[in-house]
Amino acid sequence: MAEQLGDLVGRRLGHYRVDGVIGRGGMSTMYRATDVRLGRSVALKIMSDALAGDAEFRERFVDEARNTSAIDHPHVVPLYDFGDLDGMLFLAMRYVEGADLSSLLSDGPLAPRRALLLLGQVAEALDVLHGRKLVHLDVKPANVLVTHREGSGAEHAYLADFGLTRRGTAGHRTRGGDFLGSPTYAAPEHLRGDSVDARTDVYSLACMLFACLTGHAPFTGTVDEVINGHLAGMAPSVSAEVVLPARVDTVVRRGMDTEPDARPGSCRELMTLAHQALSGTTRPEEPPVRRATRTGQQAGGPWVAPEPSGPSRPVAVPQAPPVQLMRPEPARQAPQPAPQPPGPHASGPHASGQPSWGPQPSGQPSWGSQSSGPHPRGAPPQPRPLGPPPAGPSDVASMRLRDPMPTRTSTAFTAEPVAGRRWVVPAVVAAAVLLLVALLLLLL
Q1: 101 three-state secondary structure
Q2: Where are the transmembrane segments (predicted)?
Q3: pTM for the whole thing?
Q4: Smaller CB count within 10 Å for the chain: N or C?
C-alpha cells in the first residue's frame, strides 16, 4: 500500500492536488496537497487500505471526524474536510509550516522550560477534546506540530492527527483485532483492549513528558518489549538519566500508573504537577545534562551490572616499611647512697643492692630499673626498641609498676640528678638570714 500511496503524488483526488509526501506510517500516509477550489495548502491524510476496508472503522471514522471538526481551539489543528475519495478515507487539515516534536527530540532532550511550554499547550488541547467526551488515542511526539507565532516569534504547538479519535469505549481495534495506534506511547488499557477515557491520553502525555526530558521514549526495543514495559507498570526514572530533581520521577510515575484511577484527573493537572516538580531546576532554559552512561544500561529499563570482561588480577599495593617503635629512655635516677652491708634482719631486694620502687619478689626485675647503669655525663640517652617485657612469671599480680613520683627529665645536653643541687636552697636561706642580722646591727 505504501507504493500505491506513493503514486498519489501529482494526482488529483477530488478537488485536492497531491504535491508531495510529508510522512508515512503503518496506518496512513500524510501528503502535502493543494485545495484547488480555495487555493490553500492542506495536509491530506490517507488511511491505509486495511483500515479503509474495515466497515466498523469506516463508520466510526466518519462519526468522530464530524465531531472533531467542530472543535475550535488555538492548539488543535483545524480539520477542514473528511470523507471517501475513490474508496480511500481521507482527512484534510491545516498545513502547518514547521517541525514535529519527534524531529526536535532527535537532537536530544529539550530544555525543561521549553518542554513545559509545549506540552502545556498540548494538555490544553487534550482537555478540550476530553470535554467533548472524545479520546485522541494517538498522542505522541510525531502528532505535535511546532511552529512560531507571527509577530511574537514564540513557539506554538498544535495537536494533530485525529484519525483514531474515539469516544470512551473499547472500540479502538479493527474487527480482526488489530491494534490501532502506536504502542510506544499507548496506555496499558489501550493495549489490552479495555475501555478508554481521558486518563488514557493522560498516560500518553506522561510518556511524552519523559521523552522531552530524556530525548527518548520510556520503553524501547521490539514491539513486544515495548508493550511488556507498559503493562509491567515499571515507569523508568528521569533523574537517573539526566540531571533533574527526583521530584519529577514521582510525577511521571503517577501519570504512567497502570491503574487509571491513580493518574491525575486531567492533562492540565499533570502539567501543573510537572511545573511544581521542575520549579527548582538550575538553568531551566538549557537542556538537562545527561548523566554518565553506565555500561549495561537499557533505555527505559533497570540498570544491570555488566559481567567482567576478563579474569580479575590482584593489584599490588605498595606497603610502607615497618615502623619500629622505640621505648623512651626513663629519666636518670638520683644516685643512691652506698648500700650498707645487710644486717641480720635485712631482707628484700634492697639488701642485694637492686634499686626498685616498692617491694617486689626477689629476682623479679623492675620495669623502672636501669640495668645498663647511668649514662656518661652530657651524653644523650639512647632509645631502646620497644619489645616484649623481660622474661619472667606471666602472673599479672606479680608485676610491679613504677611509682608515679615526678622526676626531672634529662635532656640531650645535661643529665644532672635533682639531688646534686639540694644545697642551693639552704645556702640561699642562710645568706638571707645573715643579711637581715647585719642590717639590724647597723640600725642599732
Answers
A1: helix
A2: 423-443
A3: 0.63
A4: C
